[in-house]
Amino acid sequence: MSLSDSSATEGVPIVRSDIWYSDGSVVLQAQNTQWRVHWSLLGQHSAFFRDMQALPQPPDQPTVEGCPVVELHDDVADVHRLLRVLYSPTIAPQKVIRFDVVAALIRLGRKYEFRALLNSAVQRITFENPTTLKEYDAREPSFPGNFIGYRGIEYDMLALARENNIMTALPCAYYRVLRCSTHKELFDGLGGATFLAPADQRQCNLSREKLIMAQMGCLGSLGWLWDWDSHGTPPDCKTPDMCSRVRAEAARGYHNSVEVRALESTDTGSCSVCFSRIKNGVRQARLMMWAHLPTYCDLPRWKELKNDL
């Protein structure tokens, strides 16, 4: 049985993985690595392997220690992570785990129909990238809450969601990348192998321009800067000179940095009257910006986004 068009690399010795059960009934092989595992366990979790086991074996089927060899055209590390989870199912929903484990479960879970593992892994991605502003605000202080954090996890999470059609996570995932990246980093990456795929790089740059324009608009999260110009300080402002100075300094800072801050709260240091006015405006602006976030990313509206798994 073979799921690829080629066998192991010619001339490279076969490596036996530490996942090797003497009573195993099938040998999986990816590149030059083999795992001896159990048809029964694979079939229990995967409709794909359950159906494969039922197929008649060809007479020239290669075997190892009497077990049929099934060649997989997948990354060795991904296969190993999947099998580790199958044989050691200790990943509780509240447990913080490595992102690459979840990525492997999603990639192979989709391909080989490990539905329970796939759904559990997707839930971790959608937890970190929710569809409501309330959930986003709850997640933000402890992001990432489901994974062991590292620099560039936002880039990897975006790529995983896009490549596997986890559509409901994409608006937030794009925003997280834009919020944590300079314009230069969107093009050049974060160093090493951490960079955006061309499709994500293009979309991030398009979305960045849209979000900056929207947040600076009169109804955007930074619209209070221009509203101040139109209406001046409130008549009951306690410290007009100070509040005007605070506003001017904030305007200069935002113009100089040109950062995506569409969903950020505002702490201006103004008097209580002006701060209350600004806070109410920003609250409404954030709701509006969130409602339109998918369209800023060239995606369907929130209610139309569906995962295709």
From TrEMBL:
<protein>
    <recommendedName>
        <fullName>BTB domain-containing protein</fullName>
    </recommendedName>
</protein>
<dbReference type="InterPro" id="IPR000210">
    <property type="entry name" value="BTB/POZ_dom"/>
</dbReference>
<feature type="domain" description="BTB">
    <location>
        <begin position="22"/>
        <end position="95"/>
    </location>
</feature>
<dbReference type="Pfam" id="PF00651">
    <property type="entry name" value="BTB"/>
</dbReference>
<dbReference type="InterPro" id="IPR011333">
    <property type="entry name" value="SKP1/BTB/POZ_sf"/>
</dbReference>
